[in-house]
Design brief:
With about 100 residues, this protein is mostly helical. It has a domain of about 55 residues. It is built from two helices and no strands. The protein is elongated and about 60 Å long.
């Protein structure tokens, strides 16, 4: 049974691997790409929401501080998601997998 390939998360033109290691690597790649895509989408939404809260604060210092906190947390989330992607690629390169 060939592995299931969802076009945005894998290369449908890549040759199908019949061994278990190839399938595990393919699943790892797909999960990494999907996790990064979902994480970046959530972070972008939170960034937009924080900007909206900041605009709607209308000079209220308490609401502005809450909005700034939301923006900071969205930025931290972006950094965590990108570092997770870098860490996953480092693990792959250290283990010498394709």
């Amino acid at each position: 049974m060939p592995p299931i390939c969802v076009p945005p998360f894998c290369d449908p033109t890549a040759p199908a691997s019949s061994d278990a290691q190839g399938q595990i690597i393919g699943a790892f790649d797909a999960l990494t790409k999907m996790g990064v895509a979902i994480g970046l989408s959530v972070c972008t939404f939170m960034l937009v929401l924080g900007g909206y809260k900041y605009m709607m604060a209308r000079g209220n210092p308490i609401m502005m501080e809450r909005a700034k906190g939301s923006l900071e947390h969205a930025g931290i989330g972006f950094a965590i998601v990108l570092l997770a992607a870098v860490l996953a690629s480092l693990v792959k390169s250290v283990l010498h997998v394709a």
